[in-house]
Amino acid sequence: MTVLIPFAGLSPVPWKNGGGSTTEIAIGPPDAGFEDFDWRVSLATIEKDGAFSLFPGVDRTLALVEGHGMTLDIDGDPVMVTEAGPVVAFDGSSVVQAKLSRGGSTDFNAMTRSERCYHTFGRRRLSGDSTFVARADVTILFLAEGDALELRNEKERIGLVRFDAVVLEAGSVWKLEAGQGMIYIVDVWYHSDEDEESYE
C-alpha cells in the first residue's frame, strides 16, 4: 500500500536537553516506539552543539537537508556533514558529538535495527520525467529539494511538496515528474530465513 506523509501534518518533538527537535516521518511497524522499531526515518533540527543519543543494535545514515552543516566526532573521528558532501553512515552505539558550523542545521536520518533488517540510502537529482522502481521490501522517498514532485502509475497519482515523503509498495513502478529537485531514497530489506541461518 502506498502511504503519503505530508510534512505539514507532522509535529516536531523537542529534545529534553533543549538542543533541538526531532520530527518523525515514518516508522515500521507503524505502532513501534524507540525500543522496538524495525526501521525509522526522521528529520532532526540541531540548534546547539551536543551529543547524539545512543541506539545500540541500530545502523544509522544521516544527510544534511538545510543549514550550514556540522562536524560529527564519531568515536573520535571527525566527519564533515555538508549538503554537497557524502552521506554519513555509522553504528547507533557509536559515541557521536555534533559541532555546528554556523547556526542551526536540519538533517535527514534513516535507522534500521540490524538484527531484523538493513537499509541503503541514495540521493537522486530530478529534472523532468523519469522512472522509479520500488525494489526493496520498504522504500521511502523524501523530497529534500524542489517545490513539487508528482508520482504516477496506472493506479495512483500522488503529489509531494518539499519535505513530504511517501512509502511505496514493494515492486511498484512509477513515473516521476518534477522541475528541479532532489529526492532521498531509503530502501529497507528484511533478513530472510536463509540470512538468519547464515549468521549461525
UniProtKB/TrEMBL annotation:
Pfam family, one: HutD
Family annotation (CDD domains): cupin_HutD_N
InterPro entries xrefs: RmlC-like_jellyroll, RmlC_Cupin_sf, Uncharacterised_HutD/Ves
SUPFAM superfamilies hit by this protein: RmlC-like cupins
PANTHER family: PROTEIN VES (PTHR37943:SF1)
Official protein name in the record: HutD protein
Species the sequence originates in: Massilia yuzhufengensis
